[in-house]
Amino acid sequence: MVPVKKSIAAAGTGRYGIRPGFLFCRTTQRKHDGYATRTQAARDLEHALFGPVGTDGDGPAQVAARLVHEQGVSCEDIARAHLNRMEMLEPKLRSFLPNSVVQGRGTLADVVLEEARGHDRTLAKLVTAEERRRALPLAGVTLGVKDNICAAGFRATAGSLALSRYAPPRDATVVDNLRRAGCVVVGKTLCDEFGMGSTTESSASQLKDVVGGAATTRNPWDLSRVPGGSSGGSAAAVSSRQCALALGTDTGGSVRQPASFCGVVGLKPTYGRVSRFGLIAYASSLDVPGCFGSTAQDCARMLDVIAGPDPADSSSAALPHPPPLSEGGYERLCRQVSGEGGDAKPLLGLKVGLVRETLRRDGTVEEGVLGAVDAASEALRGLGCEVKEVSLPAFDLSLPAYYVTAVSEASSNLSRYDGLRYPAEVEAGEGGDEGFGGRSLMAQIASSRGSLLGDEPLRRILMGTYTLSEGYGDALYKRAQVARKRVQQEMLARMVAGGGECDVLLTPTAPTTAYACGDKELQDPLQMYLGDVMTVGVNLAGFPAVSVPAGMSLGLPVGVQVIGAPFEEGAILNVAHHLERSLGLNLLPPL
Amino acid sequence: MAGGPLRRAPGPLERKANLDVTSLIIITRARTTTRTTTTTKQGRAVACKARTQSATVRALLAATLTRSAAPRDRSIPWHHARSLDWCRPSAACFASSAAAVDAPAKPVSTTEYETVIGVETHVQLDTNTKAFCSCKNEYGAKPNVNVCPVCLGHPGMLPTLNERVVELAVRTGMALNCEVHQESKFDRKQYFYGDLPKGYQISQNDRPICTDGFVDAPTFVVGTKCDAFPTTRVRINRLHIEEDTAKLTHEGQDSLAGGEGGGGATLADYNRAGVPLVEIVTEPDMRTGEEAAAYAQELRRIVRFLGVSSGNMQEGSLRCDVNVSVRRKGAQELGTKVEVKNLNSFSAVRSAVDFEFRRQTSLLEAGRGSEIKQETRLWDEQRMETKSMRSKEEAADYRYFREPDLPFLALRPGFADQVNAEMPKLPREARDDLLGLGLSVADASILSDDLGLFEYYTECVSSGAEPKQACNWLVGDISALLKEMKRDLDTCAMRPQQLAEMCQLIDGGTISGKIAKGLLPELLEKGGSPKELVESKGLVQISDEGELDKIVAEIVESNPKQVEQYRGGKDKLFGFFVGQTMKATKGRANPKMVNDCLRRALDQ
């Protein structure tokens, strides 16, 4: 952690109290004057929040919470610093949904600072750092929420025209949990429409050109490239420190792939570990809310807050219980050091399986990616792991089984967007103001759906309708379920939990580094789907996995994926944590 | 309606329940009109007409967060053990059409053809809250007040199963002698229509909660003599849980039916969306409209006795669709099946089957059998005929697949046993009880037809009333009076114990039946003890011989002319003297003793 100078603490606090808004009173008056007009304290705070991850491995979320808990910095000041950074970077990156605050609720700054002040009021009543930590473990941590997750006060468009004015009536369980833990929601991050895509280029909000800025979300490492998808906005925002943590959703790799492309840690928990309530469904049996953080530890702290059963989500798992917070939760598991190995070999005895099918040297996987996997294996050996190759013959079944399952469920989940219920920005169909214009209800629905849904959702709805229809359902959907079971069983059989030999599996997160914007090859849906080959099997099986940066290839970050047995998030975060420290990558994009 | 084998003179209470067809139509229409106007006034209904759409939809969506303070049913806890168990292959699959049945051909009116009938019934379960959210489940509320983001199908919302729904479904399944499955699953049934907020309905497709049961429906006909109820057995193929859709009210032309240039708006009331239903499907075991109606009636009785539903057909709590096909008697293969919907009374079930029989046989007779298409037809109550709604080619492919938002439904060990232990009395048992009390099949049939009446009667008898007498009062005078007063047994002031007391007063000679009859209106209106009422009004029967002799003597004295005529052989005048005595005593004289006294006085 970068040492926080005394000036911050001195400027920001009275004895225990917090003087909201003090640090940035001048910068907010003259926002665009840049650093020159800021106080020394403000500059120190920005350096602490936006600097690289230090040698001790504390990520921005941890730094922010520590500043609040221990040094009395106010949540409002931290939120303001992030708002300023967003304002500075958004024209280049476009990580966030513009005008995301629900009409009538004021400006983004109003909403964000009010929420921060609310946390400050709670904290003002507490005397010791320990009390503050217990009450609001993530105090002062800024949070980006993927636009397909409901956060009250913000629109939830899921990147679709069909929901362009939808104001969700309540928070998703994950957002609610994070807000209660002290997080401040700073905006809705852009995503592919309904989470269907790998580039974040298909969000409907990007249809309208923004003058003088990027038209689509950009990769902070290279502004001519995409951040990946579908949770690209979340990955870009965390990578560029616009927010400390971000929520994503992972249906077939939508958290891990952008995490790899943007050089951050992306965690996909076990299906059922985290509530889906409030997550706008794409494929309900595959969707999982996921965490983005700059470090594995940041992700672990986030998971501690959101993991656990939810009475509102019948598919959430009541057992096994998440590790109790009183014993340090996932965060402690994440930092855990193996007894015999000590600090030098913290993962001594851990068995890592390198999945042979994901490392084919036939050009399907980029050289730079293979290099990163090699580097990661080498580093893991250095940490005391036994690394050896394993085979997953059912690996090749994953992609077709995944797509058949996902499109089938998507065709069902998207039926409700019929243009009758959710007011859209663009009136549906011709003569929208004149009733159905003499058309039948069916014609009206068909026309609304055609104009409100983008190409990729329409394609998937059509495919899904086909795969479920009478006469084809058995040949496609039911066979996909059989294949899914096989993938699941086979993956489990490699794990110690299933009688196998590996504690975790290691694969590349994606076969390539970040794609160029508007890549022609990806216009072909099949090419785009191939990019998901490493990640979809994990969703089919429901297992947890984390993508952690393992190297750079031609100036772009490359991630590797660590897969664990069901409900073993602690184990994979542990591997990720030691791996990132051992590799010592300084991953701050050159902005 | 021609008198079929099942027809019998309805008792006064029944007449109330089964209104005749014409009055029914008017009532239905009146209700529709009022509902439509109130809906428009409320301005909270969703008009599917786009002109009014945006504003109302927005109002509706904004109003979604009003939560009712109704008692909540408990929701099923989530099952962790199944969270990794998504793709379990489904074991049981049900053939869509059952095989031909070897039931003996029943007598059908004229020809050598017979009808084969299967019935699908939707029964709304009487829970406090809806099937998958905590909105109130009530009939007749203002439109769109009992709604929430879950039952409106907002993005991101998830269903949670109401445990009470499972309990009531299992109870119904057991009463229908079904096999209750320890594990069942939920599926999505998908189609587009304005009444489906999510674009799919949560239902159970290939693994329903109950299968393979039967009902013995009584087919008693008034006027026939029998010692026990004659029944016909109808096998139940399956019973499954599903959610109801929104209720649509079409103004003017039906714009939702896909017709050209729909003139009127369609209003949607989402109060009904998500109300729990069980769908009960029979095997094609019935052969006449009477049998189909008898089955439907027995089913209604069962759900009412079980307390799982009001079974009110007019309110849509119980909705029957019948599948009708016609074949030559003795044939093994089934004919082409036609599904008839929109049957909102038992007589409609009977008439619709009869109509389809005539329609299909005449086509077969004319050699135009190929014109019988597999289709859905609507019953037109006014014209007493069915008309085509949609054919098989247009029929929806529901694209069923497992509902991923709900885990497999696994019953707690002992759950079914517990439900069984708490099983209320069934109509069949009620009928046996009544016959056991020495009542005739006809009386038992009436008393067991309605749960309220049956309970009232049993309580009355257990409070000491003589069974036959209590029965006569209930099905006779009391029913008639209540109908006159436009009240019913549940709301009238006289409790069963009081009726028993009245019966005992009659038995004990304290009052005459005639006096009792005179007291009934007041008892029904105000309640209170009949004994006290009799005493306070001084209506206690005069059974004192000396007192009666005195009164009789006075009458004989003041009517010398009549006495003379009577003694001269005009016997008919005896009645005159009885009347005079009753008049003098204001009806309080013990009739038997009056006779004795008069004879003594006149014949001396």
Note the main attributes of this structure.
heterodimer, A: about 600 residues, alpha/beta, Amidase signature (AS) enzymes, 10-stranded mixed beta sheet, 20 helices, globular, disordered N terminus, B: about 600 residues, alpha+beta, Arc Repressor Mutant, subunit A, 3 domains, 9-stranded mixed beta sheet, 3-stranded antiparallel beta sheet, about 35% helix
Tell me what the structure shows.
- The complex is a heterodimer of chains A (591) and B (604).
- Chain A has 591 residues and is an alpha/beta fold.
- Among the domains of chain A are: 334-398 and 486-571, Alpha-Beta Complex (Amidase signature (AS) enzymes), CATH 3.90.1300.10; 400-475, no CATH class.
- Helices cover 39% and strands 10% of the residues of chain A.
- Chain A has 20 helices and ten strands.
- In chain A, strand 6 (351-355), helix 13 (367-382) and strand 7 form a beta-alpha-beta unit.
- The two termini of chain A are 21 Å apart.
- Chain B folds into three domains: 27-66 and 111-395, no CATH class; 450-536, no CATH class; 545-603, Arc Repressor Mutant, subunit A, CATH 1.10.10.410.
- Chain B is 37% helix and 16% strand.
- Chain B contains 18 helices and 17 strands.
- A nine-stranded mixed β-sheet of chain B has the order 3-7-8-11-2-12-13-14-15. Chain B has a three-stranded antiparallel β-sheet with strand order 1-10-9. In chain B, strands 6-5-16 form a three-stranded antiparallel β-sheet, with no helix packed on it.
- Mean pLDDT of chain B is 76; it is low at 1-70, 77-109 and 254-262.
- The interface between A and B is large, with 69 and 61 residues.
- Chain A: InterPro entries: Amidase, Amidase_CS, Amidase_dom, AS_sf, GatA.
- Chain A: Subunit of the heterotrimeric GatCAB amidotransferase (AdT) complex, composed of A, B and C subunits.
- Chain A: This is Glutamyl-tRNA(Gln) amidotransferase subunit A, chloroplastic/mitochondrial.
- Chain A: It catalyses: L-glutamyl-tRNA(Gln) + L-glutamine + ATP + H2O = L-glutaminyl-tRNA(Gln) + L-glutamate + ADP + phosphate + H(+).
